[in-house]
Amino acid sequence: MYSRREKRLALLGFLGPAVLTLLAIGIYPLLFAFWNSLHRFILPRVPREGTPWVGIDNYVAVLTDPSFQQSLGRTFSFLLTVLPIQIVLGLGIALLLHQPGASLLRVLTRLSLVVPMATTYAVVGLIGRLLFNGDFGVVNWFLGLFGIAGVNWLAHPTFAFAAVAAMDVWQWSPFCALVFLAGLTMVPVEVEEAAQLETTRWTAILRHVQLPFLIPGLTAILILRTADILKMFDSVFTMTRGGPGAATELISVYIQRIGFRVFDQGMASAQAVIILVLTIILSRLYIRVIYREIEQ
Amino acid sequence: MRDTTAPAAAVAADRRRQGSLRAVHVIALLVVIAFCIFPFYWMVATSLKEQAVALASPPVWLFEPTLENYTTALGKSGVARSLLNSLVIAVSTTVLALVLGTPAAFAIARFEFPGKKELWFWFITNRMVSPIVLALPFFLLARTLGILDTHLALVLTYITFNLPIVVWICSDHFRSLPKDLDEAARLEGASAWRIFFSICLPLAAPGIAVSAIFSFIFSWNELLYALVLTRNEAKTAPVAATGFMSGYELPWGQIMATGTLIVLPVIIFALIASRQLVRGLTMGAVK
Hints:
Largest sheet of chain B: none
Strand content of chain B: under 5%
Number of domains of chain A: 1
Oligomer: heterodimer
CATH architecture of the largest domain in chain B: Orthogonal Bundle
Shape of chain B: flat
Shape of chain A: flat
Number of domains of chain B: 2
Number of strands of chain B: 0
Radius of gyration of chain B: 26 Å
């Protein structure tokens, strides 16, 4: 359609500005972070000591540092806590929305699912602090209705972890629900109706008819949520600042503390590069699994 | 007699079962709505309570609403300024992302070129990477350039995640426009730029609007970069909301008033774009 010269000029004009911008503000800072990770770079000491080259010392230190490993472990146990709940709740909500009848109520439900997803992460943490307050929190009051004694949630390591997890479940179960619902609507109507004549057990229909259509969404959820929890910062920071102790210090909060509260930029950069590598693996995986059909 | 009563009883039982199933469905939907709305409702309710009422235990459900928290937060506590900062930053970065991103999206949708896969990979990685990875070098670079605590620092930073979003959503929309349009215009002698500006851009306007909404929401909501790159002058609203969190007795009413002011526009925008929400958040993996 276009001559070669014309195509080359058009590409330059269309893509040039965006690619240059990405190189300048995306790639260059990453290389700079990598460079910093190879130096001793403790901000308050820079005027006196400068930033001496230390090679891979920071990486050795990070990988043998128990507090880094603990934080990474905590991040994965957080993932393993919230993800199954979000998937089960999400699937349940999606099935409710897929069920015919009560159409006005279903529309309202769909709209209300947007509210948690749209709530600013930082504000989610603030709401969490309000709901789980030990003195006047509404969660303790609610538990009291069932005769369960309230606790001072955010002062106790395990309970604080549970409270942060609960807020994440609140925010992201709707996302899982909408992803699953999109899968359910892909099931051809005739197939589903034929299955309903065969059996009345919804579990059988779910397993044999609907499940194949839910798998792509489930894969997307698994990968995206893993990435989201690796980068989760705002809501934890406003809710607990990683405390009490380090009970809720997920990996991004931990790196932020090392970089901006301990001011060890070299160490923090090395940790960030490790997280970047994990993310690159995840996004490679995402492309391979999800865009298989689209890219060809 | 027997022959007619038995099926009748069965039908009645079946109907009862249907009725109770319907009731379960309705109740379950109501529970889901309550689950989604309650924390939001509680924030808004607390923002309208006086401090003594907000801290009451057991919680007070019926109270006389007051707007005092809003006036105090906006006036004395300087939240108005931070909201303005947030608005300026979110709008500028969205405009910049659209100017840079829509032509790039068009090129990705219409041309084959080497490095297309790499570019794509880079966008997906940007959707996933933790902001802390870039916050460290950005802080040092902004300090060297002397742009700490300015709007510019945040606008540039936010481009790193807004540009991929805009490019992704827009290229998806450009791709859905029939190529015949381009070819017909080509036969009339239109250049690639002419086709982009006069044909594809107007036709893809709804998709561009959605990408603008996404870009606005992500910038408006962002906390980590803003925390690291601003102090006072360019402080955004989420940072201001976090700033209340010191001292012994927290001004809960003001905190929740600020929270409400931050969240309300986002929810309105998200409801407008709700059909595209999941597609946008999964980078197109879910239709």
